[in-house]
Amino acid sequence: MTTRTSGFDDSSSGLAAAGVSAFAGFMLAIVGLFQALQGLAAIGQDDIFVDGVAYTYELDVSTWGWIHLALGVLAFVVAIGFLMGAAWGRYAGIVLAVLGCLASFLFLPYYPWWSLAILLFNVAVVWALSTQLSRDMNP
């Protein structure tokens, strides 16, 4: 008789689900840290950001910094909750990753390559959390 310490069965699909779940949680934490660091750099008026770009969603770089900092801190907290097994973590993680995608897309003119990387990481988080959510809904 074996004792399970996680909510996943011992089959290969159960192990894959556990791996995707861990990937989702850790990626959300990493993306949260990256967004927070990006936000701190923008708040500090770092010289790495393009200045003078005129486009429809133009905001002050420090305003974007506060947006990224808030999203990053929230994403990190949600990732910790998700990794500890909180059920709300999946839904909150998907919402924050989608908001992170939107913020990174709108921040593209200021620092294109970094914004694109964060956007792609957020897409990976949405995929992983959605895969896990789908598995939980259809056992």
Structural overview:
The chain starts with 11 loop residues before the first helix and ends with a helix. The chain is elongated and about 55 Å long. It is built from 4 helices and no strands. The longest helix has 32 residues, at 12-43. By secondary structure, the protein is an all-alpha fold. Helices cover 72% and strands 0% of the residues. α1 (12-43) packs antiparallel against α4. It has helices spanning 12-43, 61-83, 88-106, 112-137.
Labels describing this entry:
mainly alpha, disordered N terminus, 139 residues
Low-pLDDT runs of 5+ residues are 1-5
Secondary structure: helix percent: over 70%
Supply the helix-strand structural class. Answer: mainly alpha
Instruction: Say what oligomer this is.
Output: single chain
Q: What characteristic shape results from the CA principal axes?
A: elongated
N-to-C CA distance = 22 Å
What's the pLDDT, averaged over the residues?
Answer: 82
Q: Major sheet, described briefly?
A: none
Radius of gyration: 17 Å
Total of DSSP H or I helical runs spanning 4+ residues: 4
Strand content: under 5%
Order of helices and strands: HHHH
Number of strands: 0
Please write out the topology:
Blueprint: H1 12-43, H2 61-83, H3 88-106, H4 112-137
Helix pairs in contact: 1-2, 1-4, 2-3, 3-4
